[in-house]
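I have been asked to look over a protein record a colleague put together. What it holds is a sequence and that sequence's fold in token form. Please read both lines and tell me whether the tokens look consistent with the sequence. I do not need a full report, just your reasoning and any doubts. This is what I was given:
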Amino acid sequence: MSMSMMPLSTDACATAIGELDITSLPLETRFPPFRLRQYGGFWLLEKFLQGVPAVHSIFEPRPSDVLLASFPKCGTTWLKALAFATRNRAEHPLRGLDHPLRRRNPHDIVQYLELQYAQSMGHVVAALPSPRVLSTHLPYSLLPGRITAEESGCRIVYICRDPKDAFVSSWFFTKKTVAAAAARARTGEEPPPYTFEEAFELFCDGICVSGPLWRHVLGYWEASRRQPEKVLFLRYEEMLRNPESNVKKLAEFMGCAFSVQEEATGVVQDIVELCSLESLKNMDVNKSGSHGPLAHESFFRKGVPGDWSNHITPAMAERLDKIVEDALQGSGFTFDVREASA
């Protein structure tokens, strides 16, 4: 097995990243319009991977930093909004009409760490005032040791989601991305066909942005078991069911727990309401404008657990469930929220 395909330990990763030649890594182009490169056992966006060496060599984490980590389409946008609103509630009153979330998309407020460095914008990250809220789609094994080390003080919040819903959401997001890329090209040609079935086959093979999903989740799950004070592991479905209790858990973990007075005056409810998917979707800023090449509205769909059943056949669901179950064998982790909550 080549180095690009092998999962790396954090120590091995630090050495290998410094010598990384992205052009030598396996390339996957069947996931339009994204170019994926395989490294450390994962398929990563080429443009994100370009920033990883700088994240390892230049980025200086602070003890007050919070890094939001996720596999794509697993509640990333929502988590960014919740974490930012919670962490900055003193500076930005939640009911204020000029709250940043009413004026900017969550992805414009909480930037991807590796993308910032890929775009030579590391100085922007360095200039952010503390406490900083940052984000990443990198697997745990590819994070710099300066972030994962217990003594760094930097906290990591990870959110996971049922793989079947994550796949369906990524399929619709990819369709929008392909359409946006075709519109930018202005060639008048239709983009090449990319069927639901083709996408599903690739997903089952772990070939997708940051894939395989199950390996991505497992890395953060195991880290949260080793260092629960360092890594908070959240489930999208559980957060939807009990948003207020999970926001309180998030605040306590980030070091900004709600006071008795704040809870009594409805601050937690205000955050949940401001950051609800329905509220974010209906804000004017998210009905227009764009984040890079993508319209803000592209980041919002249904967000409903179990929507996969409207798109995936029972046979496909059974196949994916079996792949995930086999991959997680012996880990103690399950995507079954009922079993996990028991």
Notes: Confidence is low (pLDDT under 50) at residues 8-15.
